[in-house]
Design goal:
Elements lengths: L1 H22 L11 H5 L19 H10 L6 H17 L3 H13 L5 H18 L2 H14 L4 H13 L3 H14 L4 H45 L2 E3 L16 H12 L16 E2 L5 E9 L4 E9 L4 H8 L18 E6 L5 E5 L5 H5 L5 E3 L4 E6 L3 H8 L2 E7 L1
Parallel strand pairs: 1-7, 3-8, 6-9
Antiparallel strand pairs: 2-3, 3-4, 5-6, 5-8
Helix pairs in contact: 4-5, 4-6, 5-6, 6-7, 6-8, 7-8, 8-9, 8-10, 9-10
Length: about 400
């Protein structure tokens, strides 16, 4: 009887509890509107770990982390936990943190060769996705050294060499991988691509070498032609200046010295925006870029290829023929009204040139030096007020060059 009563009391208590439960919500329950957000805070169901784990806000995670990094466990267990941690970061594409985890795993120096191979291979993959090809290749090499038949390491090594354009090494990695797995499609494709690119690179290298040889021969022929004509070149960055010692020397000797000092490619580099330079045609004739200066109007003209056998009249007649330049307001620049001069860069003396003279004849003059690969000439209107004033300020060699 007593027992029956107690059971009834117990049942009555449960009824009361259930009635209360129906009318009062459980205090620890998930919020109906934010249940997914709260659910994601549970370590087992987290989709992504927080960047920083604070024991106050994530006590469960902090506890799990302390278990993972428990130094009292065997190195193999610690390394495996760190490998798994790195894999999770890798899945989230957080490659930097994955590298840190794999590196810490390798620092445990466990005796498990397979595990160390995987750590190196996975770290190589992380470096690869970050674009650190050298580091990725180093890890692939380390993994292969531990386990020569590890297919993933061999594939990764081949991929790194491809990215580094080391196609010969890529082929070697592919061959090693195909000895392990002859039918691996990825390795077969990598080998075919590496072989094609290696052949292309070798072909391009042969072409570049042939072009370099051709260019060198052309440069030597060009410099030989200039030297044979006795034309003197000045480097733009080191213009030749007469020193106190050289004043006692013969002018011809000074010109020869300048020729020898400037007889290289630096002396053939034009300062003009066109980038034109002297060249030797198939008939053995030199063509020079030539600059005409009009100081009265602060204007210039540029001829990209002045044939050395042409006279100045040939060009000036075309330049100042039927149509005069717009800046010549007074219409003075007719060919018959013009005087032509070149400047001796050592003495700053002007030398007058007859317009019928050929360019070659002028360039062979003792005091003519080609600066920056571009002969330049001053053009003045004969007898004009500007011409008289301009020449009065200069030392003029009145002996006309014919």
């Amino acid at each position: 009887m007593t027992s029956h009563i107690q059971d009834n009391e117990s049942d009555d208590g449960m009824d009361e509890f259930m009635d209360k439960f129906a009318t009062h919500k459980y205090k620890g329950a998930f919020n109906e509107d934010k249940w997914e957000e709260e659910f994601d805070k549970i370590p087992m169901f987290m989709k992504k770990a927080p960047e920083e784990i604070d024991p106050k806000t994530h006590p469960e995670l902090a506890c799990l982390q302390s278990i993972i990094h428990d130094d009292d466990r065997p190195p193999e267990e610690q390394a495996k936990s760190l490998k798994d941690e790195g894999n999770e970061y890798f899945k989230e594409k957080n490659y930097k943190k994955a590298i840190v985890a794999y590196t810490e795993g390798l620092k445990k120096k466990c005796s498990d060769t397979d595990l160390n191979t995987i750590l190196h291979t996975n770290r190589a993959a992380s470096h690869f996705h970050l674009g650190n090809m050298r580091s990725a290749l180093n890890d692939a090499v380390a993994a292969k050294k531990l386990k020569p038949d590890h297919l993933k390491a061999l594939i990764r090594g081949a991929q790194c060499c491809m990215e580094l354009r080391n196609y010969g090494d890529a082929l070697q990695w592919c061959e090693e991988g195909l000895r392990v797995q002859p039918k691996d499609r990825k390795l077969q494709e990598l080998r075919a691509t590496a072989d094609k690119l290696k052949r292309t690179m070798e072909r391009d290298a042969r072409k570049a070498k042939a072009k370099e040889k051709k260019d060198r021969c052309e440069r030597e022929a060009l410099l030989g032609a200039i030297q044979k004509r006795g034309i003197k070149l000045l480097k733009p960055e080191h213009p030749s200046k007469r020193s106190s010692d050289s004043e006692e020397d013969d002018e011809g000797d000074c010109g020869t010295a300048a020729a020898l000092a400037g007889m290289d490619l630096d002396g053939l580099c034009s300062q003009e925006a066109t980038g034109s330079r002297v060249f030797l045609d198939e008939h053995g004739t030199l063509h020079w870029p030539v600059l005409f200066l009009y100081p009265e109007h602060r204007q210039t003209d540029f001829i990209s290829a002045f044939n050395e056998s042409s006279s100045f009249t040939d060009h000036l007649t075309v330049m100042f023929g039927e149509e005069l330049p717009p800046w010549d307001i007074d219409r003075k620049y007719h060919p018959q009204n013009l005087e032509l001069y070149f400047e001796d860069y050592e003495t700053e003396q002007l030398h007058q040139v007859e317009l019928e003279t050929t360019l070659l004849k002028v360039l062979q003059h003792d005091r003519c030096f080609v600066k920056a690969g571009t002969p330049s000439f001053i053009v003045l209107v004969k007898g004009s007020a500007f011409c008289k004033e301009f020449l009065s300020e200069k030392k003029v060699h009145r002996l006309k060059l014919k």
